[in-house]
Write a structure and sequence with these properties.
By secondary structure, the protein is α+β, with helices and mostly antiparallel strands.
Length: 807
């Protein structure tokens, strides 16, 4: 298989969060000498704190602080031994209180993340399977990566999608002894809940179903003894449900607690639960604070604290309902999410609120899809009613201002989150620029000379090339190869071009740029369901082309305005088409564009590198060889040039029906052997139209009669080449017979023949495309990195593929 450089998820996240840091929205420092939970000091300014995840504020309770101080005095700062050997003196007391709270013994861990790593690989057996809710906490998803190494199926369902969950249960029921569904009780970003009553119905229907709830955000503020949202609904814990609670966050101390009524499972986890065995135990101060907090949870006081918080949540909700602020998933939890859609709007709103005296957090990718960026607001018992009222007033004033200064609207936010549109009071229209905007659905409606001046000479998307693409892919009978075309041309008031580009809308495989091993697994599923994990995408350029699909006149002072206008218009089109993803692709690295696209809600990813030969001015094979590096020259003269004589090489401007059929079969050979870029197979109709188009020609290689080929000379290789404006030669597709012995280096020979033909025609450049960069470099190609910017409705497909086993 051809190798490509795949995008690195960590690089993408680093890029996104670095931009947020540069905007002053994250990586801040509190400067307080004393913390109270009510306010924070940042950059010398006192701010009301609406970002805590300790909703009852118990970490500041004198009883917890005194207990922690006393424990340090008596037992030191740590007890550096594995809990498998011995627990320090305070542990037994805490565990007794945890059992009193829950009615069953608990397993205390250092924190919830290490706890998941202890519990999940121990609880899930090799014969089990796991289904993850798309929004279950990262720590749960990460712990499940260990299961894949044991061959345990780990799959993902869309958030709270019970139909998809049931379908997956049916799919795994014949393969797995137990099927574990893992979800959050209360989700940390939007503050919404797991559909527990419906899940219990599924448990009755499917005896194999086990439920694993991370309920750290439901802890303390809800339930009898503060045991959390999940247990508040369950009342009693069945053996098929495991709950993860926290001793940090709202509990006010440190650590986590895992609760199961299955005593055999509990003992197995305690005996050998990874980090439980090999990691340090909680420090004495943390255990003492947790024990003091447990006393409060076991007393009537916890109900009073819960009611105080509930009243403040209700007050916040009552104020929000009187505004036009787009709160996502309204609920009675302490977590609220104000949608901004665009990251830049979130950054500006955070800064405005900081200046006004309120500290909130931006909700950013990858915690939420980049298109679902917003502000996470948490209400705690430490917030006073006047603070809450002041925050809502500040939001009501500054949210429209942040929208306005970032060219955003409530309508855009509503579309991004799929919520009903809210009419904003006195919404201002944005300043209009004196730009001319042309949108067409066929290249024939665009002036040919203008288009070719701006985007001609590249790949197969000069004016004539696009005529061919429209003929081949517009109104195709093949659903997967049926595209609509969308052209944009923006000029200034004097008709000077500022921007030109085109998009196509069609079906993409979600794993197009995934590792080959992932695509192979998905292709097995597509045998039964051809549309499995595919999406409708509006993408710059097309799946047939690569190169610089977007002309931007960067020297013009209105260039940025033109880009913003394009994005606004494309967003409208994207919404009307109900596209799952918007893709801007094949850009060179550009700091200005990177900032603009990020702020408009796009994620940057690395695309496969492209290969170009820019020196075709040699006059002989010796001169060509001299343009190569010493190592490549040696490779060429020993492994490519000597075998040229083994082939009959035929150049054709048209193909017979039989040659089209043979060439198409060879193309399919290559396509079916290459999942580096996993796209749909083009239909034979595309090749038939190619063969009749005057801008295409074909290089055919027949293996001569030799000891390896005793019959008539067969067609073993073909290059499908586009001739662009007499400037760029484009060997666009290739077909090969893999039965040809390796010694003939068929692939390299085809590349070489394409280079020779371009030189014969006097072309200045060869677009060699993506994949197999190593082989193309050997023949003098320059490898050029490319990036794309994507905006998806959600992260599901990407994260789903992240659960799949890779090699």
């Amino acid at each position: 298989m051809a190798k490509i450089k795949h995008n690195n998820f960590i690089d993408t996240v680093d890029e996104m969060l670095s931009l947020a840091k540069n905007e002053g929205a994250i990586h801040l420092y509190a400067e307080d000498k004393i913390l109270s939970g009510h306010t924070l000091q940042i950059n010398g300014k006192k701010l009301f704190h609406f970002a805590t995840t300790s909703y009852l504020g118990l970490e500041y309770d004198p009883r917890l602080k005194d207990a922690a101080i006393s424990a340090i005095t008596k037992y030191g700062t740590q007890f550096p031994l594995s809990k498998t050997y011995i627990s320090h003196p305070l542990y037994q007391e805490l565990e007794t209180k945890i059992e009193a709270m829950y009615g069953v013994p608990g397993i205390v861990t250092k924190n919830s993340t290490l706890g998941h790593f202890a519990v999940i690989p121990t609880a899930i057996r090799d014969e089990d399977g796991v289904l993850l809710d798309h929004q279950v906490h990262w720590s749960v998803q990460n712990a499940c990566q260990l299961l894949k190494l044991r061959g345990i199926p780990v799959e993902m369902i869309r958030h709270n999608n019970l139909q998809m969950l049931e379908d997956k249960i049916k799919e795994l029921s014949s393969k797995c002894k137990k099927i574990w569904y893992m979800a959050d009780g209360v989700y940390s970003m939007f503050g919404d809940y797991a559909p527990i009553p419906d899940l219990l119905v599924l448990c009755k229907k499917y005896a194999q179903l086990q439920l694993y709830f991370d309920d750290v955000h439901g802890m303390s503020w809800k339930g009898k003894n503060g045991t959390g949202y999940v247990l508040d609904l369950l009342k009693k814990l069945p053996e098929n449900i495991l709950i993860v609670g926290t001793l940090s966050k709202t509990f006010g101390a440190s650590g986590a607690v895992f609760i199961t009524s299955d005593s055999r499972l509990r003992n197995r986890i305690k005996n050998f639960g990874g980090p439980l065995t090999f990691s340090a135990q909680l420090e004495p101060a943390s255990v003492a604070a947790a024990s003091a907090s447990a006393d409060i949870h076991l007393s009537p006081e916890i109900t009073i604290l819960q009611e105080e918080l509930a009243q403040k949540i209700a007050y916040f909700n009552s104020l929000i309902k009187a505004t036009s602020l787009p709160m996502i998933a309204p609920n009675s939890s302490p977590v609220f999410f104000l949608g901004t859609a665009m990251p830049l709007t979130a950054y500006r709103l955070v800064q405005r609120l900081l200046n006004e005296g309120y500290f909130v957090n931006p909700g950013l990718y990858p915690a939420v899809p980049v298109k679902n960026t917003g502000i996470r607001i948490t209400v705690s018992r430490n917030n006073q009613r006047e603070d809450i009222k002041g925050l809502v007033q500040a939001l009501e004033y500054h949210f429209p201002k942040a929208l306005e200064e970032t060219s955003n609207t409530l309508q855009k936010v509503s579309r991004a989150f799929g919520i009903p549109e809210i009419t904003q009071k006195k919404e201002k229209l944005f300043p209009q620029t004196s730009l001319n905007f042309q949108y067409e659905t066929s290249i024939k409606q665009i002036d040919k000379a203008t288009w070719n001046t701006l985007l001609g000479g590249q790949n197969t998307f000069d004016w004539d090339g696009l005529c061919f693409l429209e003929d081949a892919f517009k109104n195709s009978a093949d659903a997967e190869n049926n595209w609509s075309f969308h052209y944009y041309l923006i000029t200034d008031a004097t008709d000077v071009p500022l921007l030109a580009t085109f998009f196509t809308f069609g079906l993409w495989k979600d794993d197009m740029l995934a590792p080959e091993s992932v695509s192979l697994q998905l292709e097995e599923k597509r045998i039964r369901d051809p549309s499995y994990l595919t999406s409708k995408v509006l993408g710059m350029g097309s799946l047939f082309t690569e190169g610089n699909h977007c002309y931007i006149n960067k020297t013009n002072p209105l260039a940025e305005n033109a880009v913003v206008l394009l994005l606004e218009q494309v967003e409208i089109l994207n919404q009307s088409l109900n596209s799952s993803m918007l893709v801007l692709r094949d850009f060179d690295e550009d700091i200005v564009l990177n900032r603009m696209f990020h702020n408009q809600g796009f994620i940057k990813i690395n695309m496969p590198e492209t290969c170009i030969i820019q020196n075709v001015s040699w006059n002989s094979i010796d001169e060509f060889a001299s343009t190569l590096s010493l190592r490549s020259k040696k490779h060429f003269t020993k492994e490519v040039l000597p075998f040229e004589k083994a082939f009959d090489i035929i150049l054709k401007e048209q193909l017979t029906a039989d040659e089209i059929r043979q060439g198409y079969n060879l193309y399919q050979n290559v396509k079916n052997n290459n999942y580096a870029v996993n796209t749909f197979t083009y239909s034979i109709d595309v090749f038939t139209k190619m063969a009749a188009n005057p801008h295409w020609e074909f290089i055919l290689l027949h293996l001569k009669n030799t000891e390896d080929s005793q019959n008539e000379s067969p067609l073993v290789g073909i290059l499908f080449c586009y001739k662009n404006l007499g400037q760029t030669y484009v060997p666009s597709l290739i077909g090969m017979d893999y039965a040809v012995p390796k010694k003939f280096s068929l692939y390299r020979q085809l590349l070489f023949q394409g280079i020779k033909r371009a030189q014969e025609l006097g072309y200045k450049r060869i677009d060699f495309g993506i994949t197999a960069t190593f082989e193309k470099k050997k023949l003098g190609a320059k490898v050029i990195p490319k990036v794309a910017y994507i905006q998806a409705k959600d992260n599901f497909s990407m994260e789903f593929m992240g659960t799949m086993q890779t090699k």
